[in-house]
Write a structure and sequence with these properties.
Four copies of one chain form a homotetramer.
Chain A lengths: L3 E3 L2 E3 L4 E3 L2 E2 H4 L4 H10 L5 H13 L8 H12 L4 H10 L8 H19 L3 H15 L15 H12 L5 H16 L7 H11 L6 H24 L9 E3 L9
Antiparallel strand pairs in A: 2-3, 3-4
Helix pairs in contact in A: 3-8, 3-10, 3-11, 4-5, 4-11, 5-11, 6-7, 6-9, 6-10, 6-11, 7-9, 8-10, 9-10
Chain lengths: 254, 254, 254, 254
Amino acid sequence: MEHWRTAIAHSDQTGIWLRGYDLTALMSRPFTDTVFLLHRGRLPGEGERQLLDAVLVGVADHGAGAPSCAAARLAASGNRESLSAAIAAGVLAIGNDHGGAGQGCMVLIKEGAEEARREGITLEDAAVRAVDRAVRDRARLPGLGHRVHTTDPRVKVLFDLARQHGVAGDGVAFVSALERAASERIKKLPLNIDGALAAILHDLGFDPPAGKLIFIVGRVAGLTAEVAEEYAREKPMRIRIPVKYDGEPPRSVE
Amino acid sequence: MEHWRTAIAHSDQTGIWLRGYDLTALMSRPFTDTVFLLHRGRLPGEGERQLLDAVLVGVADHGAGAPSCAAARLAASGNRESLSAAIAAGVLAIGNDHGGAGQGCMVLIKEGAEEARREGITLEDAAVRAVDRAVRDRARLPGLGHRVHTTDPRVKVLFDLARQHGVAGDGVAFVSALERAASERIKKLPLNIDGALAAILHDLGFDPPAGKLIFIVGRVAGLTAEVAEEYAREKPMRIRIPVKYDGEPPRSVE
Amino acid sequence: MEHWRTAIAHSDQTGIWLRGYDLTALMSRPFTDTVFLLHRGRLPGEGERQLLDAVLVGVADHGAGAPSCAAARLAASGNRESLSAAIAAGVLAIGNDHGGAGQGCMVLIKEGAEEARREGITLEDAAVRAVDRAVRDRARLPGLGHRVHTTDPRVKVLFDLARQHGVAGDGVAFVSALERAASERIKKLPLNIDGALAAILHDLGFDPPAGKLIFIVGRVAGLTAEVAEEYAREKPMRIRIPVKYDGEPPRSVE
Amino acid sequence: MEHWRTAIAHSDQTGIWLRGYDLTALMSRPFTDTVFLLHRGRLPGEGERQLLDAVLVGVADHGAGAPSCAAARLAASGNRESLSAAIAAGVLAIGNDHGGAGQGCMVLIKEGAEEARREGITLEDAAVRAVDRAVRDRARLPGLGHRVHTTDPRVKVLFDLARQHGVAGDGVAFVSALERAASERIKKLPLNIDGALAAILHDLGFDPPAGKLIFIVGRVAGLTAEVAEEYAREKPMRIRIPVKYDGEPPRSVE
């Protein structure tokens, strides 16, 4: 078998290195530095770290009933042999419709920023085009709209921090323009946490898959607490989902 | 359906709270504070946070060939539709034999500390008893012994930090005594990262399941980077595991 | 890297063999034959196949609200990129408390049958001892007791089929004795589907892990239908689990 | 919480019904009938069952080194607490690139058949158009091409059975036309097992997601045997994947 190649970690009998840094030296620094390093290949500056902290905390948890938390608890309810199984079940509920819309929004940002550069238009104009294309294709705009909050309080905190630390760039500018253009041309569609996360991660230099992967890193903190609470407070098999059958009436095999 | 009960997170149209703290306020603090808060129900002190940082960084990654990283990459190789699926596959390879021995070691520490208190013996004596029981039952002592490193460099870093920040307590004392007792009565069995993680988490007030759950939080940082690299550098289905068949020779159904 | 060894499947450019049989020949026979072959290393007789059919059908599904089905649907609700992710989330909810108690019961049967042989006692006596040990250790007897059905209709069907086809052996005898002994010494504890499945699989020559693995094979049929229905009938994120927060009241970070 | 709705299974204290049929009656029939029933809402005829048997057997396993089997074994290697975790890890490696291409091919078939009907052209012509579109868009044609076998022996078996049992319809006709058109216009691209499975499932009346879901049902039979063998023959942590680091050389944090 051919060796696998990697530029992330290596170790020998004396030590372990991540992206070339001695792991024991990284251990004296915040965990968030290592998350940044693993994905970006370099250590963050002070402002970059604070922004990544804010993103990770912002998505850690917001309620036991979210699909990720609920799936983790259901797995813990039926299968109490493996904590890993419950956490994995929670991760599996994360996707474009729950927690993962940041990935699609990062693609929009990347394409918008490239279009602006290539065609010499403003980000504002590129955002208008993106909205027009979505209207034409009847596509959703990932990162806009929210079920509960009309204005998600986390968005302003992220953007204020980004401006304060000089991290705000094309990402913040593009999604803000996108929100304005969509609200003019479609309906009031406030930026949600996925869109804000996408903007910040773009401005921190992350690639689109990070829109989902960094959400997962933050949410796993919450999932582990949810599963610990399920084990500590609840008996196995306590969960009962009420179901109404509306299919074929009883019938005979022959 | 009855409501589920939780003491972790709640939200309404205006905000989100974790353990009672406004999430937007937590966003201005390190992510590690939120990990600590979610599990311990209170914010950490400076030293406590640094210890938890060291634990999380210490287990983030040590090589693409570890079962968790390799399982994540295999899932990414066959199923490139879902980043979540690849991360979950990686999490599923974490157990008592890979990354999760800290849980068993935390049980040993807890029982040893209780036995010492209950019977008025020293932790040192409780550790000797634990070793004797393991010898009698032919059981492994989780947290001791290592495949590659004779002395894992991460152990000393964790213990030095713990002493420096006044965090070292029964956990560090018990596993150190365990290492000595095992080396005298069985064979040289150096403390490994699982055992050191267990000691620190015990001294930070975590319960035994955290021995697995906190490992998962740290390792997911590494898994996300491994999967991002697999997507960026490798084509689907590039992985070939060489297999030798040693079963029944060809035979006919009738 | 060393080759992995296996006695299950091998292939070359001309064909594929399972346990030595040409896969294309197996394709003309029932799927259940292949399930049996993969686990037992030989093809089943007519009666053996019918018993395995009955077991697989018996556990395929009994309602969308069971933890396995509900976890699969929650994953489908948040993550609609990957059908595999939803099925895997469902599998993860299967454990000793949901669907997997057959494994523990198969261990009981195996130990009981060995004890009877070794000590020259009847299976009836071995079952009494097993119940007495469970009472002494305050342990549950896997395979006995049921939440909903006082008498699970599937049990009688399985045992009738087993007797009719001459498959009933130590497994059926032991769990029947276990049910009688437990009902005399503890309380009415009817055999449940896990216990019946365990008895049949033991008598078909399967090892204890099959108590979980064969349940999974059967249940995955149900999970795939549940997930297909969720995709076809429901929008993403339609699931709302009601949660009541009972933790710390709002408090300030400083 | 609103009740969930389902047309698959329901139960009360006296019984369990799948699609309206008493589960205990279904238990006297082949498992494959229940798989068909769960997905298609009716019981299969004799020929339909035999075709579904052939599909399920055909994908059950073809070697321990396939991503699904290898991921399951890696999870079993690190996490021996949960058989479910290992099976789930295996399922997670199934996707468009491994085992799941049948779904995309079923979409092609469905669109081709609709196009033929709508525009009054032959399936042959619709297949030519599909190939031309793929060439234009530089897209792959799912169901065509194979890594190892130039002619997959399973394809002929499936198609012969389909013709023999009168099951062959638009699906078989369309993929055969697709194979011819692609080989003329692109290069020799033999139909693979995914394409044959797609054709048969289309002709059995299944929807495109079944191209992945039915593969999963069949493969889980193999995965359970692979995991049982890993537990029985191998120690935990026996797997070593060789890795070559090609990233940053050692560097200092400051």
